[in-house]
Amino acid sequence: MPETKDKQLVPAVETKDNCPASTTETKDKRPAPAAKTTDKRARTLEPLTSTFSASMFTTADELSTSFAQATPYPHTRIAPFCSDSLLRGVRTEMLERLHYTQKETDIFKYHQSGDLANLDGLPAAEQAQLPCLRQLRDSLYSQEFRDFVSRVTGCGPLSGSRTDMSTNRYMQGDHLLLHDDVIGDRRVSYIIYLPDPDAADASGWADESGGGLELYARESPNSWAPAECPEKTIRPRWNQLVMFTVLPGQSHHAVQEVCGERERLSIQGWFHFPQAGEPGYSVDQMQQLWTDGAESTLSQIAASHQRAHGTQETEFMPFPKCIEDTSIVSSEDKTELRLMNPEYLSESVITQVASRFADDSHIELAQFLNPAVASALQPLLIAADEHDKVGNGHMAAHGTRGAGWIINGPPVVRRFACLQSAEDALDVQLMDIHKMFEGPAFARWLASVSALALRGRRGAARRFRAGLDYTLASPDAGSSCTTLDAVLCLAPGTTWLDGVVGGYHCYVDSGDGDASNDGSVYRAAGDDGILLTTPASWNSLSLVMREPNVVRFIKYVSAHAPGSRWDVSFEYSVDE
What we know:
Elements: H1 60-69, E1 75-78, H2 84-97, E2 101-104, E3 108-112, H3 124-127, H4 131-140, H5 143-153, E4 165-170, E5 175-179, E6 186-193, E7 213-215, E8 232-234, E9 240-245, E10 253-255, E11 264-272, H6 297-302, H7 304-307, E12 317-323, H8 331-336, H9 347-360, E13 362-366, H10 371-388, E14 405-408, E15 414-419, H11 425-438, H12 440-450, E16 454-464, E17 470-471, E18 483-490, E19 505-509, E20 530-534, E21 538-546, E22 550-554, E23 565-574
Antiparallel strand pairs: 1-9, 2-3, 3-4, 3-5, 4-11, 5-10, 6-9, 6-11, 7-8, 7-10, 12-16, 13-21, 14-15, 15-16, 15-17, 16-23, 18-21, 18-23, 19-20, 19-22
Helix pairs in contact: 1-5, 2-4, 10-11
């Protein structure tokens, strides 16, 4: 899970006079520094029998066997694992005495507390208000429990000086996309589930409620990329502990969007390799993680061969000759562009559009398709989503697609459906639009409104299914050249406009923010790096001149969107 915790001294605690330590809630999108090192010797540890389930330690050998045999990679879940009364106290403190910050990037959206390692830095009066959280934290990182974790997972010694845990609240629409947790010297990941213990579904959420932990296998023995669909989903359950070893290119997992009204309350954390001076420390201890050729999620996001593993990231198909501004649309071209709203073919409108584009390097053109074409297309798109039970609170099932569509991945970088062949009336109409975007007549019109010379094109008709699909802000193959992006968004409905249900198209200045191959940080653009955001909409063409240092993404489409985000998306290489 991404390392994005605030490292301030838990701005989360309510003082005894009920005045919050921090009353301003902000969106913090900056990656946080590494987990804080703390001194466990200064803590008073309650007996472990008052913290954990009495039977848990006696089943260590059985858990070790099941852990090693678990698929798609070694993991275990223990329920109940903790004293019920203690965990209820933890839940109360989390809800009543901690402050949460909403965090959102291309890969996640959730609410998170500060780092619980910082509890020791709070004034004594404020520490006294979190007795249950302190007891649970100190018990988890005690020598006895770390030995238990080592025995179950076979991971070897774990650090007792490095605490790395925070509390998360996943509310409706919150999610965490696929990753493998490889950051720094993490060794074992764990999640403690604290949904409402008195709810009817405390023993396990229903599938339609979302919030499940999805575990992904590798797509093949010869690839470190994750498979298209999860092999296993672990549902939120009261008093459940899930843990797995952090393995580059193997421990792929994601948190499904929360679809119901209840929160997915949890504690996430990691046990780390021993630090220098601790028993079991070795200078080359992390080398055991990297089997031959293994690639972490971060490395895959940065790797050109992964970026190129997708239909839209193929090489540009060149035009017979470079296409330049003509300013006048010929009668032959008007025939080829008959799917367009005829207003956009008039000289006066072309001049107006060109003027705006020259000033801003981007423009949004509403009602772009011919009204008759748009009117015929919209009910077909809505019917397809209704047939597949996509949107309006329903997560699309993995594998949902029409006969002429394929799923474009890998999901470490992107996931959406891509039209390959026309099998029904909807496909035929989308394919006709695709052919228009691919043709020289449309390129000549683009050259007229952009004053850019275009050398080649590539693109696809796409479907971003609600509750499943997205693209991440990874550098595109061939981004060494400037491109003109032309994206015709075909998303029925009006609830897209505020961006709450995702599906928006965001352009980001990548700067030096690429993920490093050692997995030290997750790529997460701050507010200052966002250049342009366009919400999903109906029948709207977005034209953007994109320079090589600019990356873009389509935000995950929420299950609460009115349906899929459909679009026809093309890039045109610019002759410079």
